């Protein structure tokens, strides 16, 4: 086994981002792209780190440049990045969807159609936004039901959406998949990762916050079958719980975690 070790990156030059939390990052080839987050205000700039030259830089972005946001959804497919939701200022959340074409540093605001069987996702923070098989899956998060922009009436979300992407650029529309089984409870600041080995791909939701911190693990298995009768019907999704007993047969159950990350590695 190769021993894993941490090493601090030194000799970094360029426009170094200020300290922050609630930001997101993705890797495209040798570049690490960082967007959003907050620390005495929401960060608006798009920062890029070149892992070869060890240099930070601010690309000359153009197009429909989004406002800075924190605790947003952030996925990468090829050379495009999709950003959904997040906090744009204190108490004000958004449900906007933006696409960044990193090959041209071009932002575009997307307006996918609403689900045939429901409404558009509401503004939120702390949700998961996961890419699997040319679609993005949105789960949970935290909404603010206060009519006063300076107030905060939190509402934990347990809704589940599927966003169908167009090849290379754009998004067709949202769907509300037909789910079965006992799904995860409403939560925010959880993680969700996609994993495909043998059989259908699975989404694994772990942890998060719902007034208290959670340490359960829920896999969502996607069936590749559609409702007959009309094209583009949402796929059926089976959601089932992994019991603590099953977890103990694999590894020690982790302590309850908040604001964590979870990654699959082959």
UniProtKB/TrEMBL annotation:
The keyword Cytoplasm does not apply. InterPro entries: HCF1/2 (IPR043536), Kelch-typ_b-propeller (IPR015915), Kelch_HCF (IPR059124). It comes from the Eukaryota. Signal peptide: none annotated. Keywords: Repeat. The keyword Repeat applies. One of its GO terms (molecular function) is transcription coactivator activity. Residues 4-218 form the Host cell factor Kelch-repeats domain. One of its GO terms (biological process) is chromatin remodeling. Pfam families: Kelch_HCF (PF13854). One of its GO terms (cellular component) is histone methyltransferase complex. This is Host cell factor C2. It comes from Xiphophorus maculatus (Southern platyfish).
């Amino acid at each position: 086994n190769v021993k894993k070790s941490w090493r601090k990156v030194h000799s970094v030059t360029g426009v170094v981002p200020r300290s922050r939390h609630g930001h997101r990052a993705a890797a495209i080839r040798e570049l690490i792209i960082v967007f959003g987050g907050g620390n005495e205000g929401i960060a608006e700039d798009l920062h890029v780190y070149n892992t070869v030259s060890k240099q930070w830089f601010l690309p000359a972005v153009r197009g429909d440049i989004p406002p800075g946001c924190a605790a947003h959804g952030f996925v990468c497919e090829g050379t495009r990045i999709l950003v959904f939701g997040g906090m744009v200022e204190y108490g004000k959340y958004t449900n906007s969807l933006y696409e960044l074409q990193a090959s041209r540093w071009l932002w575009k605001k997307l307006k996918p159609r609403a689900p045939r069987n429901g409404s558009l996702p509401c503004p939120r923070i702390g949700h998961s936004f996961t890419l699997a098989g040319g679609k993005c899956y949105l789960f949970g998060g935290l909404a603010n039901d206060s009519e006063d922009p300076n107030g905060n009436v939190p509402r934990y979300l347990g809704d589940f959406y599927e966003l169908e992407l167009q090849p290379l650029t754009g998004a067709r529309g949202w769907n509300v998949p037909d789910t079965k089984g006992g799904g995860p409870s409403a939560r925010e600041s959880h993680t969700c990762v996609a994993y495909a080995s043998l059989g259908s791909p699975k989404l694994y939701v772990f942890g998060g916050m719902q007034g208290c911190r959670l340490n359960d693990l829920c896999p969502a298995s996607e069936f590749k079958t559609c409702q007959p009768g009309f094209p583009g019907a949402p796929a059926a999704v089976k959601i089932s719980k992994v019991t603590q007993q099953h977890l103990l047969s694999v590894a020690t159950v982790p302590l309850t975690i908040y604001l964590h990350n979870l990654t699959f590695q082959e």
